[in-house]
Amino acid sequence: MHKAKILLAEDDLNLGSLLKQYLVAKNYDIDLVFDGETAYKLFMKNLYDMCLLDVMMPKQDGFTLGKNIKRINSKMPIIYLTAKSLKDDVIKGFSIGADDYITKPFEMEELLVRIEAVLRRTTKEKDKQIKFSIGIYEFDSLKQELINGIDVVKLTTKENNLLKILAENQNELVERNYVLKEVWGDDSIFNARSMDVYITKLRKYLQEDTNVKIINVHSKGFKLVTDSQE
């Protein structure tokens, strides 16, 4: 089972450490940072399932950080943590794509319930999507078919599952270890070599559209580029 990875940005060192300790004990993978600028840099390097963002942070406040994150990944779930309870802040948070909002001080259990609710909803939405547009191709992950006009490529289960992960995260970094664990079950060297072979196969299937590329991000993972972004 995939352990949800959460980016936690909280400038209160004590609260941040307590939150991390609590959520790790609840089987979450937590990256803790103490300012918005560092949080953004980390977000650009890693693949997260959710972001918990303090509103009042140095270098980059939570709302600005949230906007920047949504520009990169509009579907990234965000819960804001704030000491403020002003109506305007609540409205601002939701207007820029907040999935939830919790006011300090709060009970750890309440935050956990909110995290679980948001993750359940976003996971269901992700699982529902079975058809994807990839450049000139249509990809049907239920039928395991990659379609270009009248040409249809029947994909193996591993090819299909690998392409589905890439298609769900178009123009975004997908970590090697995440793919290995999701598709192959573990990140052994043997499976890593096998994955590279499958990536090569997918590149061949997609080669008729020169705007579509699967690029290697050195020592990090892969990115399915479907426009001019690299």
Percent of residues in beta strands: 15-25%
Largest sheet: 5 strands, parallel
Fold-level CATH name of the largest domain: Rossmann fold
Tell me the count of domains: 2
Mean pLDDT: 85
Number of H- or I-type helical stretches: 8
Tertiary shape: elongated
- The class by helix and strand makeup works out as alpha/beta
Task: Work out the radius of gyration.
Answer: 19 Å
Uncertain runs: none
User: CATH architecture of the largest domain, please?
Assistant: 3-Layer(aba) Sandwich
Q: From N to C, what is the helix and strand string? A: EHEHEHEHEHEEEEHEHHEE
Instruction: Give me the side-by-side strand order of the main sheet.
Output: 2-1-3-4-5
CATH homologous superfamily assignment of the largest domain: Response regulator
Number of strands: 12
- Rounded to the nearest angstrom, the distance between the terminal CA atoms is 31 Å
Name of the CATH first level of the largest domain? Alpha Beta
Report on the structure:
It is a single chain. This protein has 230 residues and is of the alpha/beta class. Helix 2 (36-45) packs parallel to helix 3, helix 6 (157-168) runs antiparallel to helix 7 (176-184) and helix 6 crosses helix 8 (189-205). The model has no long low-confidence stretch (mean pLDDT 85). It folds into two domains: 5-127, 3-Layer(aba) Sandwich (Rossmann fold); 131-225, Winged helix-like DNA-binding domain superfamily/Winged helix DNA-binding domain (Arc Repressor Mutant, subunit A), CATH 1.10.10.10. The strands form three sheets. A five-stranded parallel beta sheet has the order 2-1-3-4-5, sandwiched between helices. Strands 6-7-8-9 form a four-stranded antiparallel beta sheet, covered by helices on one side. Helix 1 links the parallel strand 1 (5-9) and strand 2. Helices cover 44% and strands 23% of the residues.
